[in-house]
Amino acid sequence: MPSGKTLTVAIMDAPYESANSTTAMRIIDAALKKGHNVNVFAYEGAVNLTMKAQAAHPNPVKGTTVEQEQHPTTKDWVSALFKLASEKGVRLDWVNCGLCVDERGAGDWIEGPRRGGPKDLLDASNTSDATLIIPTK
After folding, report:
1. 45 close to 16: Cβ distance less than 8 angstroms
2. How many CA atoms lie within 13 A of 92 on its CB side?
3. Which of 39, 44, 82, 88 could form a disulfide with 112 if both were Cys (CB 3.0 to 4.6 A apart)?
4. Are the beta carbons of 21 and 70 closer than 8 angstroms?
């Protein structure tokens, strides 16, 4: 059941660079499960979290296959968050900073995210019950 509350999360880490992205995904997942709406503003390297071309890989050192590794991709995590929001009847608004997207050539995304700018973060924060900024380091 939707709570009527909204959380805004800003993240900037690129996929697989630190635990910050994983932590952000867990916070977003927990908020959606509690019925909260979530706004995400992805900037800097975080715009790559939703890149469609991500692929799981085998581990040649261990000799394991893609299937055995079950290596997750952040695009799959984000897709799962959109699915969860739909199932819970809440809103997930994922904005990729357009300036950062252009710098990185990172415009081919999975379904769900939209292009925006810093004003989207300000607007989301002004209309949210809480805002969490997850910086690098």
Report:
1. no
2. 28
3. 82
4. no
Residues 59, 69 contacting (CB under 8 angstroms): yes
Per-residue confidence in pLDDT tens, the chain, 137 aa? 899 999 999 999 999 888 999 999 999 999 999 999 999 999 999 999 999 999 999 999 999 999 999 888 999 999 999 999 999 999 999 999 999 999 999 999 999 999 999 999 999 999 999 999 998 77
Q: Which two tokens stand for residue 54?
A: 């991500």
Q: Which residue has the tokens 């805002």?
A: 131
Of 112, 117, 109, the closest CA to residue 50 belongs to: 109
Query: Which H or E run contains 93?
Result: strand 92-97
Tokens of 50: 């939703």
- CA-to-CA dists, residue 37 to 2, 7, 56, 91, 99, angstroms: 8, 6, 29, 5, 25
Determine the length of the chain: 137
